[in-house]
Amino acid sequence: MSSINVGRYWRGDMHLLYRLSKYIFRRWHALLLSILCMLASTYLQVYIPRISGAIIRNILEMRDFGTLLSLVIQSIVLTCFLGVISFLQRYANSYFSHRVIYDVRNDLYKAIQRQSFAFFDRTETGQIMSRATTDIDRIRGFLGFQITSLIGSIFLLGGIMLSMLSISLELTLFCFSITPLLVIIFVFFGKRVRDITHKAREQYGVLTSVLWENVSGIRTIRSLAAEDQEKQKFYDLNKSYYQSMLQAVRLRSIFIPLSALVSGSITAFIYWYGGLQVIGNKLTIDQLFVFSAYAAMLTQPISRMGDVWSSYQRMAAAGKRVFEVIDATPDVKDKPGAIEMPQIKGHVVFDNVSFGYDNNHLILKNVRFEVKPGETVALLGPTGSGKSTIIRLIPRFYDPTSGRILIDGYDIRDVKIDSLRRQIGIVSQEIFLFNATIKDNIAFGKPNATMDEIINVAKAAKAYDFIMQLPQGFNTVVGEGGITLSGGQRQRIAIARALLMNPRILILDDSTSSVDVDTEHEIQQALNMLMKGRTTFIITQRLSTIRNADKIIVLNNGEIVEEGTHESLMKKKGLYYRIYQSLFDMQGEKSLPELKEGDTKVIEGGFSRDGSLA
Amino acid sequence: MREVFPEMALWHRGPPLYVGEVKFERKIPTRILLLRLLKYITPYKREVTLTLIAIIASSISNMISPYILGREIIAKYILRADLAGLQIVILVFLGFLVLGWIANMVRTYLVGKIGENMLFQMRSELFNHLQTLSFSFFDRWNIGDIVSRVTNDTDSIGEAFTEGVIHVLSDIMSLTLVIGMMLAVNVQLTLASMVTIPLLIVSTLIFQSKFRTVFRVTREKISQVTSKLEESLSGIREIKSFNKERDFIEDFQKVNLETMQANIRAAKIQGAFFPTVQVIQAIGSGIVMIYGGILAFNGALGSIEDAVGTLVTFLLYVQTFFRPIQELTNFYAIIQSALAAAERIFELLDIQPEVKDSENAIEMPPIKGEITFENVTFGYDPNHPVVNNISFKINPKETIALVGPTGAGKSTIVKLLCRFYDPQQGSIKIDGYDIRMFTQKSLRKQMGIILQETLLFSGTIKDNIRYGKPDATDEEVINAAKAVGAHEFIMNLPNGYETKVGEKGLGLSFGQKQLIAFARAILKDPAILIMDEATSSIDPYTDLLIRKAMRTLLKDRTAIIIAHRLSTVRDADRILVINNGRIVEEGSHEELIKRKGLYYRLYQMQFKDVESLSKPVIGNEEISSISRK
Ligand SMILES: Nc1ncnc2c1ncn2[C@@H]1O[C@H](COP(=O)(O)OP(=O)(O)OP(=O)(O)O)[C@@H](O)[C@H]1O
Ligand SMILES: Nc1ncnc2c1ncn2[C@@H]1O[C@H](COP(=O)(O)OP(=O)(O)OP(=O)(O)O)[C@@H](O)[C@H]1O
Ligand SMILES: [Mg+2]
Ligand SMILES: [Mg+2]
Q1: How far apart are CA A342 and CA B618, in angstroms?
Q2: What pLDDT is recorded for position A517?
Q3: Which residues pair with B393 in a beta bridge?
Q4: How far apart are the first and last CA of chain A?
Q5: Does the model's pTM come out above 0.90?
């Protein structure tokens, strides 16, 4: 499983404890209460067997009914008291752990929301999900039980030891000579079990992500008739996970019954050896009874301490993964003292911008251009030339590696991100709609929009007619990702969604590729009206749309190769001219526009010059 | 003293998490759920029998030790100072311990084994079932929901089986044995210790009804947390573009808060139950002691040694008697959620694929590629037909283009041909045979389908290209990439064909993904090639080159091309113009231009400006002359 690269050295367990302690101290009173109650209840647990001993002695020796009654009542009252205390302890503990987890989960969610696009590029959804669910649960498992359990166990162990000592030194020494054996058992098996569980967990993670990918890509899988292959893949993973689990079962079946055997043997020995002493009058029967009750309690704190240790280890791994996300600094964030972006007029300047998704591979190289307020700019270029990348820099989805981007003279890194994005409407190349009604999807950026506003933008995006034809109209639920709409319908909903924001800058990334020309033309006209005086960036493969732009920027390999209006570029007879001409080649090679030296590289399509195929 | 085995937490798989919409009120009766679950165990009759024997053996050994301790060791030997007898009885005691140990080992192992087998079966069955379900199912269901049924739900059944059912069985076993033993030792004391039972029953009932609601609410809440999370992760880019982070955070904090509150409430009730039982137990023991004391004083329990022994035995029995009841809450929660999980699993398993292979479906033999639609009508919702009584015929090796306004039903037509859905009326034939005669897999094996929604899988580019033909050689992969013009950009990537692309093909531009998907379809060397907007995001120049290449590529196959870019469709042998689910025009490019219908209008629209610039006059002749210039 890949891990999140936070670009930051993780400083080990101490750092984790430090990070966690901040959350813990915020709820210290609950923790304190829980620990105090734990101590009190441990004390009572150690004390109550003495009463049972006294009762037996009473019956055996004094035969006094009054004392018997008062002892029994004492024991019941103490148990009630113990009950109240242990209730308080459990409650305080749950309260504490759930509060802490509440804080951690909120912080994790906020951290996720704060991350920039690059984070989500490199992190699988499943990874983040498992951090926010399984890993957080592990932390809670530890906090909710183990801290107090550890303290209680130490205290209980001490109490048991003292009580045992007060009864019989020899027997105590014997019992504690067994303890190392117990510890060895727990440590040895604990480690084996942990290793195998860890492996199984890992396999399970892979299994889950394969399943996830299968379900989300099921349409593609079916169309490639690749089900058998998928079944085999899943079967193999399922099988190896099963085998690891079976291995764990084998270990478990040896390990778990062992502790009962050990504690039972201790009891047997105590009765044998203690019995001898009772017979020799060195011990009374009630002392023996009480002692054995203590001995039976002995395995509990020891095994619990082993449990604390393994739970700690799991928590440490989980906590590391959680805090890795919480502490990750987003690549793109408001700088201190960032100002509100005033209303954008739409003057956009790319000043020598270079950018790469990873540092050693530049996608954009020294891009510089200027767009005046109200202009419509068309970006054109071969596939993979960096068009989408350029427009992703404008709302600061990524920050340039070098150079700067100015809007109305402000470096966009100097203004608050939300004040910038609020004024930019973007329709991206791959559209995601939420599993909600069409109305909610359109109103996504402006939940308080009136129905009139929604209808207006739907009309402008030429979505209104088809929406009204759907059985539930605006209340139709579109399915996950918008899957129940046709490609063009989805794009138009996304355009309406962006228009509703009333953006000062509108960015359309190939967002009418699945819309027929007729409709596209109408959308274009509506946009001309709506976006009058505002800046529009448009990426499209339809030259009829590009032609109308105020400025055309032709990109190739991340560099601007030409820039100008349609007329000036046609005159220049450069790449634009040739691309444009290619539209007219309908019939055969003979009219394929002349390629110049180096053009084959331009066309990333990778055909040799004569268009022949390998 | 009552924590059974805290080490158990080592294997605890964590509380079940639910994703997506979950129904918490069960519809299927418990009995039926249990019966169906039982089916997964029936293959293991031998193991189950052994397990039951082991449970009985370990219960007996558990029950016998208090008896030996009190009545034998203390009363008969220690108090009577019988040294030799003591040693023997201690050995007997140890014998029972070892018996219990072995029985426990066998039980734990077998239960674990049966459980894991059951889960393995269930997961396989669910996954294979998913592979048979139709598109209409996936249109309606959330991915997160499906995934959580296969993972979390099976997990919680496993947990309930290994940790719940077996304990409940042993507990019931122990309970009967305890009562039997107590009665055997002393009837009066037994009755005395039962005095608290009504109290116990009443308080258990009260708590149980509270547990039910409380557990339901906590499950509901945690599932909301997960689905909120999942939703915001899949839409994260939209959330950031639309500045919605704060709203989503607020939303999330709200459900998170509710989750916390529900959990704390649950903790309060759960935390109260345990001490309550403890107090009732103390009262029970108290009554035993007082009554036992009185009996002992009266000499009704025999000699004083016997009396003490009996009392110790009883005290231990009362503890064993109450332990299962204390644990009931834990198991109750586990078993309830397992039943809910079982229902969700069976619900999924019970869904019948709408499109399925007929009983005597045959493998499709190699085809020529003739396609016929006969009066086909289809609607995703049968009341709203999207395809209306469509009939057409495509000859082998012909290239057909489908054009028309968005939402006209073009993609739907090809989905019908691939049998992703079955038409409500009419029939679709390939080489004259109804496609419902063939198995779906063999049908699609001979088709190369490029869907409108381009999707790549995480893995290398090479893996992606040969996804539909895993045994393809590297050379075949490279040839396919070259044929669609993807080779060069792939070679420019840092690791060429070995470059890893992320979830959904992240790290490639959209056009690049389309090219990979194209190569993937071509690699199958299909008899029928279907391209639904396969090059919509590819620049005109590359597209032009692809079109040239397609002349070779399409020569020996039947092809259906859907495109809005009319330059792409011009080369087709025949063009079908679709509008509102009907074929409104049909013919070659030239014929349709002459007809001056919808196609002509769309065409004009696309080239109007272009032509007005290059050749000022618009008209068919002009257009064709441009094209042939
Ligand atoms: N998230 C990403 N991580 C890494 N590399 C990326 C990422 N997105 C795009 N690229 C790479 O950056 C280059 C430019 O991609 P971009 O999406 O900007 O192209 P484009 O011009 O929009 O192409 P198209 O017309 O196909 O949409 C491509 O080589 C692509 O592989
Ligand atoms: N899975 C689905 N469930 C319900 N309705 C659907 C589904 N897929 C498509 N539709 C509806 O069926 C109609 C036809 O859709 P189809 O995808 O066939 O259109 P199309 O002609 O391919 O359009 P486009 O050019 O925009 O891709 C649309 O109104 C659409 O909303
Ligand atoms: Mg792009
Ligand atoms: Mg379509």
Answers
A1: 47
A2: 80
A3: B372
A4: 38
A5: no
CA distance, residue B426 to nearest chain A CA (Å): 22
Q: Do A83 and B565 touch (CB under 8 A)?
A: no
Q: According to DSSP H, which parts of B299-386 are helical?
A: 304-350
Q: How far apart are the first and last CA of chain B?
A: 95
User: What's the pLDDT at A584?
Assistant: 61
Class of the B33-349 domain? Answer: mainly alpha
Q: Which residues contact A223 (CB under 8 A, 6 or more apart)?
A: B418, B420, B444, B447, B449, B450, B451
Domain layout of chain B by residue ranges: 33-349
Return d(Cα A188, Cα A180) in angstroms, integer: 12
pLDDT in tens, B6-42: 222 222 233 333 333 344 456 778 888 888 988 888 8
Sheet holding B371-378, edge to edge: B387-394, B371-378, B425-430, B433-434
Q: Which of B3, B139, B440 sits opposite A300 (nearest CB)?
A: B3
Which tens digits make up the pLDDT trace of B117-135? 999 999 999 999 999 898 8
Q: Kindly state whether residue A547 falls inside one of the protein's structural domains.
A: no
Residue with tokens 């709506």: A530
Domain count, chain A: 1
Q: What are phi and psi of A378, to 5 degrees?
A: -110, 135
- Residue A402 falls within a domain, yes or no? no
Helices H / strands E in chain A, number of each: 22, 10
Q: What number is the ipTM of this complex?
A: 0.81
Q: What is the largest CA-CA distance in chain A?
A: 121
Residue A492 lies in a domain: no
> Would the CB of A386 count as within 6 Å of ligand 1?
yes
Residues of B in contact with A288 (CB under 8 A): 78
Burial class of residue A571 (count of CB atoms within 10 Å of its CB; 0-12, 13-18, 19+)? exposed
**For the domain that residue A86 is a member of, what is the CATH number?**
1.20.1560.10
Q: What tokens were used for A64?
A: 């006094």
Mean pLDDT value across chain A = 83
CA-closest candidate to residue B488, choices B536, B449, B551, B546: B546
* Domain range enclosing A31: 13-326
| A407 domain-assigned | no
CA A286 – CA A270 distance, rounded (Å): 13
DSSP for A90-129, written as a single string: HHHHHHHHHHHHHHHHHHHHHHHHH--HHHHHHS-HHHHH
Ligand nearest to the CA of B386: 2
Q: Among residues A504, A479, A509, A476, which one has the least CA distance to residue A491?
A: A509
| Residue A388: predicted pLDDT | 92
φ/ψ (deg, to 5) at B82 = -95, 95
